[in-house]
Amino acid sequence: xxxxRRKVRIHNPxxxxxxxxxxxxxxxxxxxxxxxxxxxNNQFFTDFWGLPNPVHLENYRxxxxxxxxxxxxxxxxxxxxxxxxLLTTSLSAYTFARLRxxxxxxxxxxxxxxxxxPSMLMLIPQYILLRDLRLLDSYVGIIIGYIAGKxxxxxxxxxxxxxxxxxxxFEAARIDGCNEVQAYYKIALPxxxxxxxxxxxxxxxxxxxxxxxxxxxxxxxxxxxxxLGLLRxxxxxxxxxxxxxxxxxxxxxxxxxxxxxLLMNSFIEGMTxxxxxx
Length: 278
Description:
Helix content: over 70%
Largest sheet: none
CATH architecture: Orthogonal Bundle
Family: Belongs to the binding-protein-dependent transport system permease family.
Distance between the termini: 40 Å
Number of helices: 13
CATH superfamily: MetI-like
Keywords: Cell membrane, Membrane, Transmembrane, Transmembrane helix, Transport
Number of domains: 1
Subcellular location: Cell membrane
Structural class: mainly alpha
Shape: globular
Transmembrane segments: 14-35, 75-94, 106-128, 140-162, 183-205, 246-268
Domain ABC transmembrane type-1: 71-263
CATH topology: MetI-like fold
Number of strands: 0
């Protein structure tokens, strides 16, 4: 027992040093971006590692002014997409977990098989489909792509959670006179809120940071999302202005970081709940 305790004490400093190093490696890029966002080009090149002196708050003013339309587009697209992702996937997951119909497992496995297909292979068919539907260069086209792309994984997580719940709970609801829609709304939805929160966070991160899909189907700058808007903002300068550029990065990244920190416990709870039973 004593030897075991000594061994733990010997390894604790090494583990602590390693953890501190990993924390520094993880957070230093964010700190560097934050400090650089207050510098001008002269400070950036002459005092690369130093603190900004003086502080250039106008960098944030310029960044906000330039990227606000794209920020608005991303909020609209992400909000609508996540709403329909949660609605469609929770209904589908409840159906696969609690209802009986022919070839249920076959259909479910077919949906799961879509997770094995690289997303790059789906871009051309999706583009052609939206082109034929005349939905290119529109919010609707972008949103449809995101909703379709998040179906398989979200259904997988939610179905696992629904399957882990006792059947007696839903049978009791039916005995009390609930139909399937009422059982879904009154029983299933309150139970699955942590998992839906997890799906919402993961979807938001993917949608907010996505660059390729909006690039493919949009050409109108008024429809650009924040990723395309940042590129357009930085390329609008004859020479790169690092202060406003990094301020733009902070403006777009900080909301996601704060949101994840606030909802981290719900995220972990949802992932754990969804992993109870496959």
